[in-house]
Amino acid sequence: MNVIEVNKLRKEFKSYSSRSGLKGAFRDLFTRNYKVLRAVDDISLQIKEGEMVGYIGENGAGKSTTIKMLTGILTPTAGEVRVNGMDPHREREKFVRTIGVVFGQRSQLWWDIAVQESFRLLKKVYKVSDEDYNTHMKEVIETLEIEPLLDKPVRKLSLGQRMRCELAAALIHNPPLLFLDEPTIGLDVLVKMKIRAFLKEINKKYKTTILLTTHDLADIEALCDRVVLLDEGKIIYDGRLDELQKNWVEGKQVHFEFQELVEVSSLEELSKDFDVKWRPGERKNQWVATVEGDDDAVSRLMSQVMLKHAISDVKINQVSTEEIIRNIYEEGIIHG
Amino acid sequence: MFYLSIFFQYAAQYLKTRMTYRGDLVVEIFSDLLFQAVNLIFILVVFGHTALLAGWSREEIIFIYGFFLVPYAIFSAFFNIWDFNDRYIVKGEMDRVLTRPIHSLFQIIIERMELESLFGVITGLAIMFYAGSQLGLELSWYDPFVFILMVIGGAFIYAGIFICLASISFWSDSKTDIMPMMYNIGNYGRYPVDIYNNVIRFVLTWILPFAFVGVYPAAFFLGRTEWYTYAFLTPVMGVVFLSIAYFLWNAGVKRYRGAGN
Ligand SMILES: Nc1ncnc2c1ncn2[C@@H]1O[C@H](COP(=O)(O)OP(=O)(O)O)[C@@H](O)[C@H]1O
Ligand SMILES: [Mg+2]
C-alpha cells in the first residue's frame, strides 16, 4: 500500500514587486507586477509503508515546500496528493492525527513551560489514552534519553536536547508516518547518532514510514535505502542509494600530495589518455583525480603521475556519496 | 466536547504559568485599572462644562462606559490577535498551528489568551452598579439574561472585526498600522452615537459596528426605548460579524504561504 501518493504536484509562489515613485504606486493599486516562482515543479512520487526515504537537494530546491504540501500546511497549486489515504489540506484536522512532523528550524514545543507539560497538552490534543501514552512514551523517553530534561522549560535546553524533545513530541500519538525537515541541522555528531539510532528503531518496531530531508548525507547513508533527489523543484533521481553510487561513478578517487607546486595543465597533459577529472584538494599541493575505469586504469594513472612529479603522499578512495551528488548537480542529468 | 476540554487544559496551563510570575500579574491588573480610571476622569472632565451631552447625562455616559468594559474584557482575554501578522505569518508559527488537529483559529485563541484581562468584567460591573444606582435604575429578573446576550454579542463584534483584520495577513503580509488604529476607533463606541455626524454614526453602526459594543446595548438598560431596535440587533450583529470573520479566516488559511525561510 502506498502511504504517500503524489501526482504532478506543483507549487508556485507569486512574488510582487512594487513600481517606483508615486505614479508607480498608483499603478500598483490596479495591476501589480509579479513573478511566478515554481518551487515544486510537477513531481510524482510514491512511498510505501515502512520505507525510509531521504529527500535531498540544494538549498531552495523545494524540499520544505514539498513537505509542507504533504503535511497539509500549504495548498498545492496543481496536482494530486494523497497521504494516508486522505487529502492533507482538505481534511487537515483529521489528517494530521495520522502524521508526525518535525521542522528542525522551528520549535513545536511551548517555549516557557516544562517539556513534560508540553507533552501533557499534546497528549490531550491528540486524544492519546493514558495507557497508550505510558507504554509508548516511556520507551521513547528512554531511548532518546530525555528523562532528566522533562521538568525543564524548553528555552533552557540546548539545541541537541531540544531536538530530541521535539522528536519525542512528534511521536506522542505514535503516528504511522513521520516527516522530518532537517532534523539534525546544527547538531553535534553524538546527538545525530542518537537520533539516527532512534529513527531506525521505530521504523523497525512500528513500521513507521519516514520521509526526511537533510544536509548531512551521512544521515541518509545511515538510514535510507531510497533517495529522492530534487533540483529546482524537479525530481532528478529516485531510486536506491547504492544504485546511485554504483551507476554514477564506477571509478575511484586518487588523492595526490605533491612535494612541489604543480599546474593542473601539466596533470591534464600527462593523463590525457585517461577518463579522469582533476580538482584541487583541501591541502596545499594536493590534487584529487576522479578516474573512471577499472583498477588497472587507476594504477597506470598513478605510475604516470609519479614518474613526472615527486609525491609526498597518495591515497585511493571510493567516491563518496557527497561527491556523487555534487557531480550530479554540476552536470545536471544522470548517466549510467 | 473536545474543544471545551482542550480549552480548560490550556487555561489551566496558562494559570499555572502565570502564577509563577505573580508580580507581573499584579502589575498588569493594576495598570489596567489605572487606564480605566483615566477614562473615567476624562468623562468627568467633559461633564465639568456641560450637564448634558446630546441629551445624555453624565451618569448615563459612565454607565455606557461600564457596560463597554465587560465585552471588551472578554475580547481582550481571548482574542489577542493584534500581532497575528508578525507572530504567525512572518515568523511562520502558523506552520506549527496547521500541523495540529484543532481548528487553527481556535488554537490561536487558546494559545494567546490573557485571562487577567477578565478583571475588567468586575470593574465594568462595579461602574454600572454605581451609575445605575445614581440613576435609580431598577433591575428586572430578565436583565441579567439580556445582559449576557448583549455582552456576548459585543464581544463577538470586536472579535469579528479583529479576526477579519488578522485574516488580511494571509493575502498581504506587509506591515500596516491598521490594528492600533482599530483599537482607537473601537473607543468611539463607548459614547452615544448621536454626538457624531451622520457618516461616523453610519460607520460605527454598519461598517465597524463598535456602537453595538457600548451605547446601543447599554441604551436598553438605561430604558432609552428609542434605541431598543438597535439594542436588540446587538447579538445578531455579533453572530453576523463573527461568521464573516470565520469564513474569511478559512479562506485565508487556504492561501497561507508560509515564511519563505
Ligand atoms: N512563502 C514563500 N514565498 C515565496 N517564496 C517561497 C516561499 N517559500 C519558499 N519559497 C521559495 O521556494 C523555493 C523552494 O524553497 P524551499 O522549499 O524552502 O527549499 P528547500 O527546503 O529545498 O531549501 C525557494 O526558492 C524559496 O525561496
Ligand atoms: Mg528547507
Automatic annotation (TrEMBL), chain A:
Entry's Pfam families?
ABC_tran
Keyword tags: ATP-binding, Nucleotide-binding, Transport
Every copy of the ABC transporter domain together lies at 24-257
Which Gene3D superfamilies does the entry mention?
P-loop containing nucleotide triphosphate hydrolases
- Can you name one GO molecular function term for this protein? ATP binding
Tell me which PROSITE patterns the record gives. Answer: ABC_TRANSPORTER_2
User: Sorted alphabetically, which InterPro entries does this protein's record hold?
Assistant: AAA+_ATPase, ABC_transporter-like_ATP-bd, ABC_transporter_ATP-binding, P-loop_NTPase
**Record-given protein name:** ABC-2 type transport system ATP-binding protein
Species this chain originates from: Evansella vedderi
Q: What is the lineage of its organism?
A: Bacteria, Bacillati, Bacillota, Bacilli, Bacillales
Automatic annotation (TrEMBL), chain B:
Q: Where are the transmembrane segments?
A: 25-49, 61-82, 115-133, 145-171, 199-221, 227-249
**Protein's UniProt keywords contain Hydrolase:** no
Q: InterPro entries, per this entry?
A: ABC-2_transporter-like
Q: Which UniProt keywords apply?
A: Membrane, Transmembrane, Transmembrane helix
Q: Which domain of life is it from?
A: Bacteria
Give the protein's recorded name. Answer: ABC-2 type transport system permease protein
Species the sequence originates in = Evansella vedderi
